[in-house]
UniProtKB/TrEMBL annotation:
PANTHER family: DISEASE RESISTANCE PROTEIN RP, DISEASE RESISTANCE PROTEIN RPP13-RELATED. It comes from the Eukaryota. Residues 376-438 form the Disease resistance protein winged helix domain. This is Disease resistance protein RPP13. Keywords: Nucleotide-binding, Plant defense, Repeat. GO terms for molecular function: ADP binding. Residues 119-292 form the NB-ARC domain. One of its GO terms (biological process) is defense response to other organism. Residues 1-41 form the Disease resistance N-terminal domain. The keyword Transmembrane helix does not apply.
Length: 438
C-alpha cells in the first residue's frame, strides 16, 4: 500500500508540473494575441516573420505538452493509479489517490432541459409505448457537442415514469477512447444486483466472461441501459452481445455526435436529432443563470445580454458558460465583457471556444490551476467531490488556512457555477460527483 501511495505522489507531481507548464503556454499565447491586436495594419505586415516564429514555438510547446500528457497517462496505468472502476477492499483511500469513479448513477434531482421539453416528451413516449411489440428497442440521441444529449438522456433516465416501468436500470459511457471490459463492469455495478464480494471476484474476469455474466444477470429482466457518448458502432457491437433481447420491452438509449452511428446501431432504432435552441429558448436559459442574483434586471443589461445570446447561435453549452461568466459580474462590468467578446467575433457568431477561453481567463490563478489539473483525467471521467477536495488540499492548490477544505469546496462550486464543470450526482442538494464537459 505504501508503494502505491508513493507512486501516486510521483504521478501527481508530474501532473502538477504539466498544469503549471500549460498555464505558462497559455499566458504566452494570450500575451502575443494582445500584442497583435494592438498593432497597426502596416506594423502587423512587417512583423509576419516574427509572428510565424512565435506561432511555431507555441505549436512546438503544445506538441511537447501533449506528449507529456500521454506519457503521464501511460504511467497512471503502469502505476495502477485510478485505472479500475471496481471497488477495492478496505474502502480507505489515500488523499494522494484519485480512484476512477465512473458514471454509475445519474443526478437525483429533476433535470432542467430548457428547449428540450418537446424532445423529452417524444422520447419518453418511445420508451414507454411498445405498440404490442416486445422486442428490445433502441433510441439514439444525436447532434453536435454542447446541444444537451447527455442532459436529455439523464432526464429520461431519472423520470419517475421510467423508473416505474423498468425493473433494472444502468448507465455507462464510452467516449473516443474506451475499454469494453470497463464498460461492462460499470453496467454490472450500476444495476445494483451484485454484492461487493461478488464484484471483487468478477473484476478479474476476462472480457468474454464478463459478457456472459452480464447476459445472465439481465436474462428475463426488463431493463433500460443508457450508453452515453458513443463514437463508433464497434463499441456498441461489443456491448450488444451482453444485452439479451428478452422480448419483454427492454430499451437501450445511446447518445452520439455521429449520425451514421445513431442510425446504424440496430434495425429497430429511433434516431432523434437535437436542434439548436430558438432565440426565446436561448434567452430563457441565459436569463435563469445570469440574472439569478440581479433583481430587478435593468434594460441596459437585458440589451447587452440579448445581443451576446444572439451570437451564441442557439448552442446550449456556450450559453450556460456565458451565463455563468456574466452571473459573477457586476452591472458595471457587463459592457467590458461584451466589448471583449465583440473583439473576438468570427463570422458574426461567438465560437464555443471563445466563450470557454474568456471564462477560463477570468478565473483567478488558483482556480486556473485546479481546472488545468482536472483536465488530465479522461473524457467523461466522474470525480468524487470529497476525494477531489482532499486531493486539492494535499497537493498544495489551496493556501494554508484553517478552512482549507471549505476553500477547496468553494473552488469546485465556482467551477460548476461557471459551467466549466458539470454536476453529475446530487444528493440532498449537495454535489457528490462532477466531471469536465466533453
Amino acid at each position: 500500500r505504501e508503494k502505491e501511495d508513493e507512486a501516486s505522489k510521483v504521478w501527481t507531481k508530474m501532473v502538477l508540473d504539466i498544469a503549471y507548464d500549460v498555464e505558462d503556454v497559455l499566458d504566452i499565447y494570450y500575451l502575443k494575441a494582445d500584442e497583435r491586436s494592438q498593432r497597426g495594419r502596416l506594423r502587423r505586415l512587417t512583423n509576419k516573420v516574427g509572428e510565424t516564429k512565435d506561432a511555431c514555438k507555441i505549436l512546438d510547446d503544445i506538441k511537447t505538452l501533449k506528449r507529456r500528457i500521454l506519457d503521464v497517462t501511460r504511467k497512471r496505468e503502469t502505476y495502477g493509479i485510478g485505472n479500475s472502476s471496481e471497488p477495492r477492499g478496505g474502502g480507505n483511500t489515500s488523499s494522494f489517490r484519485m480512484r476512477q469513479l465512473r458514471r454509475t448513477q445519474s443526478v437525483d434531482q429533476e433535470e432542467r432541459v430548457v428547449g428540450l421539453e418537446d424532445d423529452a416528451k417524444i422520447l419518453l413516449e418511445k420508451l414507454l409505448n411498445d405498440d404490442g411489440n416486445k422486442q428490445r428497442y433502441m433510441i439514439s440521441i444525436f447532434g453536435m457537442g454542447g446541444l444537451g444529449k447527455t442532459a436529455l438522456a439523464r432526464k429520461l433516465y431519472n423520470s419517475m415514469e421510467v423508473k416505474g416501468r423498468f425493473e433494472y436500470q444502468a448507465w455507462t459511457y464510452v467516449s473516443q477512447e474506451y475499454n469494453i471490459r470497463d464498460m461492462l463492469m460499470r453496467i454490472i455495478r450500476s444495476l445494483g444486483m451484485t454484492s461487493g464480494e461478488e464484484i471483487e471476484k468478477i473484476r478479474m474476469f476476462a472480457e468474454e466472461d464478463l459478457e456472459v455474466y452480464l447476459y445472465g444477470l439481465l436474462k428475463g429482466k426488463k431493463y433500460l441501459v443508457v450508453v452515453d457518448d458513443i463514437w463508433e458502432r464497434e463499441a456498441w457491437e461489443s456491448l450488444k452481445r451482453a444485452l439479451p433481447g428478452n422480448h419483454n420491452g427492454s430499451r437501450v438509449i445511446i447518445t452520439t455526435r455521429i449520425r451514421a452511428v445513431a442510425e446504424g446501431v440496430d434495425q429497430r432504432v429511433y434516431a432523434h436529432k437535437l436542434r439548436f435552441l430558438t432565440f426565446e429558448e436561448s434567452w430563457n436559459l441565459f436569463e435563469q443563470k445570469a440574472f439569478r442574483d440581479i433583481k430587478p434586471v435593468n434594460q441596459d443589461l437585458e440589451r447587452i445580454g440579448k445581443e451576446m445570446v444572439t451570437k451564441c447561435g442557439g448552442l446550449p453549452l456556450a450559453i450556460v458558460i456565458l451565463a455563468g461568466l456574466m452571473s459573477r459580474k457586476s452591472p458595471n462590468e457587463w459592457n467590458d465583457v461584451y466589448d471583449s467578446l465583440w473583439r473576438r467575433l468570427k463570422d458574426d457568431s461567438i465560437q464555443f471556444s471563445t466563450v470557454f477561453d474568456l471564462s477560463f481567463m477570468e478565473l483567478k490563478h488558483e482556480l486556473k490551476l485546479c481546472f488545468l489539473y482536472l483536465s488530465v483525467f479522461p473524457e467523461d471521467y466522474e470525480i468524487d467531490v470529497e476525494q477531489l477536495v482532499r486531493l486539492l488540499v494535499a497537493e498544495g492548490f489551496i493556501q494554508e488556512d484553517e478552512e482549507m477544505e471549505d476553500v477547496a469546496r468553494s473552488y469546485i462550486k465556482e467551477l460548476i457555477d461557471r459551467s466549466l464543470m458539470e454536476a453529475v450526482r446530487i444528493e440532498r442538494g449537495k454535489v457528490v460527483s462532477c466531471k469536465i464537459h466533453d
